[in-house]
Amino acid sequence: MAEPGMEAEPGGEPERGPEVEPEPGGEPEPEPGAVSAEAVLRELELFELRCDGEDVPGRLLELCVTHALGPVTLANELLAFVTTKELGTQLGAHTLDAFEHEVLSRRSSRVPRRGDRPHRGLHDIQSLQDLLEEEDEDELLDAYTTPSKGARKRSNSSPEQPRHKRLPGRSPLGAFSPGSFSPSVTPSRHYASRGGRGDVVATFGDAPGTPWSSLGTPSCTPRLFGPPERHLSKPYKFMFQKPLDVREVMLWRMEELGDALKRHHQLEDFAPVTLPAQEPVTVLGQIACDSAGKLNAHSVLLVGDAAHAGGAQIPLDLSELTEFSLFPGQIVALEGTNSTGRRMRVTRIYEGVPLPFHAPTEPLPDQVSVLVACGPFTPSDGVAFEPLRDLLDVIERDRPDLCLLLGPFLDARHEQVQRCELPGSFGEVFRLCLRCILDSTRSWRPPLVVVPSPRDVALPPVFPQPPLPWPDLPRADRTRVLLVPNPCTLELGGTVLGVTSTDLLLHLGAEETNRSAGGSDRFTRILQHLLTQRSYYPLYPPSEELNVDYESLYSYGSLPVTPHVLVTPSDLRYFVKDVLGCVCLNPGRLAKGRAGGTFGRLSLRRGADGTPSVAAQVVRI
User: What is the rounded CA–CA span in Å between residue 230 and residue 245?
Assistant: First the structure.
């Protein structure tokens, strides 16, 4: 009879199995099948647990074998149970019955056993291929889904016409062919029944005869604007920022914007925010809320700068203002009186100053067409990526000079992502989606600019976000694919585009408080804040759904100039607006829930005065 850990081979010496290193302070725990009653009793004696009855040792051994427990695990579980229930150290039949019912049965339901083959850890793509060769389709589906009470059972009968194990199309990723998506993926009924396909729902500067496709002339190449050290080019360590470091970054921004406000409005030196003054004084600080709730007119605080106030804060009385728009994190200069030193009555808010526009040094091209699309690229009730296929058809038909694609490419909010029902790993589906875009645009080979999103399930959820990692990008496509960070500032033939895939409109709109004598446009106010605060994300503290590294945001998320075009997609309604001379475009999402969405088009031309002229449209997919 072979000893444990050894298996006898016919006509040969027994082969010794892998040796197990003993744990410090004891011997390795035997497998459940090799457990003896003596080993169980020996472990129980360490905790002074005694058996009350002759049948108890046999019952303990039965529990070990039935629930795949070793002596040490059983002793630990028993000790925790009797200590919690205050049952004493004598183990009787009733105690063991209660222990099995309340502890072991729940433990078994949490860790289901799959036949004689235990599954430890998660599958990677290689182990999935091995499973395909050894198990049938039913077991493969079970590897991706949570076991349910009504799970299907394997049939023990042999099929009349057995299939070969290596038939093509058996890969779990076979539903995503780079050239075309497999019809085995169920299409979305809501998306297929959409109306208004191809309708133009918003326009800006659209003159009759505006071309939205390439004119066939040599186009300019997109590039990142500014010096290389201002661009986030590689991943970085996040989740290590300290509150003092964040505060220091805020003081840097406050000092920079304070100097700009002082020069533009010709202000004198700022006064401390807590200094009592009967005469009007001008102070500099950052807007904050006095509680954890939403900012309103009665909960506004001003946190002073370091040079004049040492970071002190004071409540603001806004009753004398007829118009204002404030949000947490906003850097402002205020004029008012502070008679007691404990509350400031504000009489004027000095508006922020946007940066100047970029002056092109070279002649602008006659016309450049840009297609702008933001994910999700598939409806939330399926992964057939029908909106992406329709978008690729539009690209093939219009043949723009540049395609600007913003994530999420595989949305973390997708229903099948949240239920872990994808036919492959997150990374595999993500890369195959990108590969499909490459293969479908090879005939025309337009330049592609790819912007990641914090909602991409396969990418680190941090902002600012490094460029999308694409190590297997074909060498032939590297010249036409530009992988950029989020946010980024691009230059295209002298026209500067500011791009971010973060939903700043939704985040800032939820925290803003305002008072207006007339009907003011909410989107215009938010976009003015972004341009005058000179940051792609001026909100502090940030939205709960966004992880912001403020040191990296200060280095890579500041506006170098006021862009000619600002692309800021949002879950809110699409629009095209002129804000402070900047054309702001919200192209919407290509897929909105289970329905179809919209995308944007830009026509960049040389104006009469030599400056960029922009026309834009928002079109239903």
Answer: 20
DSSP state, 334? E
Print burial letters for 510-535: b (CB count within 10 Å at least 16), e (below 16): ebbbeeeeeeeeebbbbbbbbbbbbb
Is 430:153 a contact under the CB 8 Å cutoff?
no
Sign of CA dihedral 100, 102, 106, 107: negative
Distance between CA atoms of residues 39 and 41, nearest Å: 6
d(C-alpha 406, C-alpha 503), whole Å: 12
Q: Which pLDDT tens digit goes with each residue over 82-141?
A: 888 878 888 888 888 888 888 887 765 554 444 444 444 455 555 555 555 554 444 444
For residues 334 and 344, is the Cβ–Cβ distance under 8 A?
yes
Listed in order, strand segments (DSSP E) in 264-320 are 277-289, 300-304, 313-317
Q: Count of residues for the chain?
A: 621
Q: Nearest-CA neighbor of 155 among 143, 172, 138, 140?
A: 138
Angstrom distances, CA of residue 92 to CA of 53, 76, 329: 7, 17, 65
pLDDT (tens digit, 9 = 90+) per residue, 161-188? 444 433 333 333 444 443 344 434 566 6
200, 617 Cβ separation under 8 angstroms: yes
Contact 244, 256 (CB under 8 A): no
Q: Which amino acid is at 106?
A: R
Whose structure tokens read 């920079």? Answer: 256
> Residue 257 is inside which H or E element, if any?
helix 243-265
